[in-house]
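Schema walkthrough. Field components (list of strings):
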Amino acid sequence: MKQIILFSVLVFVSFFTMEAQTGNVFKAFSKKTSGITKTNINFNKITAKSNFKSASNSPNTFSVSHNLKKPHINQNKIPRFFEKDKSILKSSIVHTIEEQFYSFHNSSKQITKLSDPRMQLKITKSHTDKLGITHIKAQQYYKGIKVYGAESFVHIGSRNDIFNGYIYEIVDTINITPYISKNEALNIVNVDLATKTVQKDLSEKQKEILKYNAPDITLIIYEESLVYEIIIRPNFLQEWKYFIDAHNGSIIKEFNNTHSDGASTSTAYDLNNVLRTINTYLENGTYFLKNTSENMYDTISQEGIILTLNANNTSTVNLDYTTISSVDNTWSNQTAVSAHYNATATYEYFENTFGRNSINGQGGNIISFINVANEDGSSMENAFWNGQAAFYGNGGSAFYSLAGALDVIAHELGHGVVSNTANLEYYGESGAINETFADIFGAMVDRDDWLIGEDVTKTSFSPSGALRNMSDPHNTGTSITDYYWQPKHISEMYIGLQDNGGVHINSGIGNYAYYLYATAISKDKAEQVFYRALTNYLTRKSQFIDLRIAVIQSAEDLYGDSSNEVIEAGYAFDSVGIFEEESIDYAQDYPVNLGQDHLLTYDTDFFNSNTLYRSSVIGEDFYALSTTEMKGSVSVSDDGTVAVFVAMDDKIKVISTDPDDIQESYFSDNAFFDNVAISKDGNRLAAISTEIDTAIYVYDFISEQWSKFRLYNPTTSHGGTDAGGVLFADAIEFDHTGEYLIYDAFNVLNSSLGDNIMYWDIGFIKVWDNSTNDFGDGTINKLYGSLPENISIGNPTFSKNSPHIIAFDYFDSDINEYGIFGANILTGEVDLITTNAIIGYPSFSKNDDKIAFSALNMSDEEVVAVTSLSANKIAGVGIPSIIVNYAKWPVFYTVGDRYLDLVPIADFTADVQSGEAPLNIQFTDLSINNPNSWSWSFEGGTPTTSTQQNPSVTYSSEGMYQVSLTCANSAGDDTITKSSYISVVNIPTGIDNYSEELFSFYPNPTSGVVYFDSDIEFELKIYSSTGLLLIECANVKNVDISNFSNGLYFIHLQIDNKIFMNKILKL
Amino acid sequence: MKIFRIMILAVVTISCATQKQAENSTTSFIKIKFGSSGGFTGMTHEYLIKNDGKVYKNTSDNLSLINQIENSEIENIEKQIGELNFMNLKLNEKGNMTYFIEVQSSTYNNRITWSDRTQNDSIKQFYKTLVKTLK
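Field assembly_structure (string):
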């Protein structure tokens, strides 16, 4: 029979009793304020801090109805189209365009009825297209007066010449002397206009906007009459056209010539002389290269335009741009047409292929600048994206005008897409991936081949006629000294500082991987996979291996884990040397304790004096182990022989679990404790005091020392509240290594509204360090960074065999519900084991296939129940069943020995992985499961091996090097090898400031011998662009490099203990 | 006489002080390289200003003289180098088009790079000053 609780004499002490939350309670407790209790505990204090994550819009324009008249039907007898074959005999005379034009018309008089083509036709413009056809436009005149509407073309080809347009046969009797003056004609117009519209003089500002000063009055021949053609703006909004007979003043014709502002289209020749339909925009009588016809255009914000501007041969340093406009929606600027058309085509590709809303994904403007020059005003042989717009130069010796290539446009705008998604850093591997995606977009928009820039690259620069070739990155070159060569495999990768770490060079590797992939599965699928990788998985610093991972994951997302698309992605990256990274499986289990398992429960029958019972795991064969009243559940060592608990006198007691040899004793006389736990190996205790001292106490049996660990919250803010924190811990349990405790703690946060937010949460604290065999540093990690205000979690416990599996109690105060949850702290998965009516104090069974927990029966009596677990150990299966009545605080345990050492899993990192020689690197061991020996191997490093845990190594020679680590403990060993892990560059350095009077060399460039002219002694070295020493000599007159490959080389001079550097180009 | 002697002494002292200051003045640059690289082709455009005012364009390591600037422009450049504290300047931004300036003197050699996204207006202004020497 339990002792009758005696009412003790009230001693004046301060008690702190609080409900965890208003209303229902997660865990009731009674704590004293700190410093109340006198103890003889001498402890080390351990406190740690740790982390246990347009461009310009068009202004509003007026919209005026368009008043069209029917055009006159052409009743001209002169045909509007005919062609003539050229002579098959080759002429030795080279004719000018003008000569050819008039020769054509002279030989066509019978058809055109022109008596004197030289007088009757004036050439207005001409151009020769890529096919070699010359197009000559002309205007017909009658006795020096323009014939209205009489424009025609002659197209001079190699095999035939073609005429099209209008030439009118005009009688020779028209009097070309006007009888009324221009002013009189204008008066007639104004009188008539007054009956049709509002006339209001324009202000100077309005004239400037409209580029209109006064009515335009021209004498013309109109339908065999001498006529004044008058174009007049009676007000700001309208433009009218009048035809006034110049002899009798009659109004032959008049109409409102005002154009409706807004989107329009036109056709014009691009740089490749292909006739393109382009979207333009009419605004106040002028057309601009502005496309407002795409889905992205927002009529309210007027964002979402495609705009092409003219940089007027200025550079970005002093950009002086203008709009590109036309008064009649005709476009002769072929560069502008190309840039404008290609930008629209690229926008439509992204929209139609990926549903992407413009380059920035948000319907943003797409702006292109043409005619961009170098800083010195020379023609720029380049194109680039500056983060906001694309810029195109007009080429020179190596390239044609770059706007002429659809893939160049798509490449530059592709950089914009990259900037607005993964934003890959433009350096090293991430920069090479950036370039790869830009080339991918270029090749997918300009889809008929795998060449990049083939429409604008001159063969004098690149023999293939393309700047790059995704299907063969070597691109007819032999090495990096060929400017158009790229590597197609990691083994050929450029390592150096030029070109931002080789972004344009090493992009060949990713380009080739894409080519292989697209060839295997189709371009349609490949572009979807890679786009998904770019927009969902890649990040600013992504490396080649990350690209592989992202692409394969994207393929899995789209086509399934075992799909052909996934397999081919792996093959593609394997082919370029980007292999799957060795994955480390951290989820290791301990061996099951093969001894006999039992169940401990605490009896709740008031009339039973026994407290602690041992039974079978199914609640049979009970043996009483103690009559001591306990403050909490017992904690058992892993071999099952010893248990500890805190008695109601606040003292720690130790008890054996063998009912045939029951031994119970006090651990110490310190009446200071609320809870206690024993480590798996039985070497340490962890304890919670009776006071609010925000601490956990740990005792080491071997050193016989105590340490006091301060509790804290690594995260200090909770949205809108003042920083608050943990007050005290309650439940505690050691992990399998004995280094960490898992615990629950009570927290109070002070709200700025004056309310207190009180909750329980779970943390991990490092209290021991096996490598030093000493107390740990007390660093804390929380299971959850923050919990909802209505949620508390606590009473955590580790599974018996999986160190990454835990279970814990859960309480939702809003709905007054309890539950027990399981969690995998490696994967982050959480699942419900069972609902409950009270806090459960869960305990895993020997095989982790069951959970025992405190519960209530239908009579609200305390019982111990058990429920089965799924194979993942965190989800409940089936219906719980009661196994012990009048009981609580169940603890499964097993009597038997097992090793709790796990085989180490080797891993490491380095503070830097690439740089210039000599490169000093600090390696850090990241192995888990407590290895106690390390064996490193450093190919190319000094030292080449080490047995230190965290060694430093120096690399002095250029190359890519492998690093291996083998670590071991009593359970076994493990090795990890990382190939091509360290890359070292050897760049010759020097200061090139020698006087040219003292030393010079020539010629540069050279195709063979280099001559040296020097009055002083010198030592000479010549390096390749990758840092290989090729020639070493001194005081020579000349050096023959004719057998060198074409390309760039470094000349390294030593004069008077000073080092100088220069470069020489071998052709 | 005494006053005259004092005046002479003052003049000599001032002259010496001035000369002493001149001896301690900052060394001017020897060479400035600047330009841009990157873009679609990855090509580099580099220009060179020497302390004698000659301005070169560097094409495949072939220097072509394109301009000769006045002393006043050289002084303006030196002034800006000093105002920027160029020898201690650290700037290493990268972009699709990267701009660079490298100043070499008898005591230091410093190179900075930036992209169009840079917020460093003073560097852009200095670059404009250098670009002006090209014409």
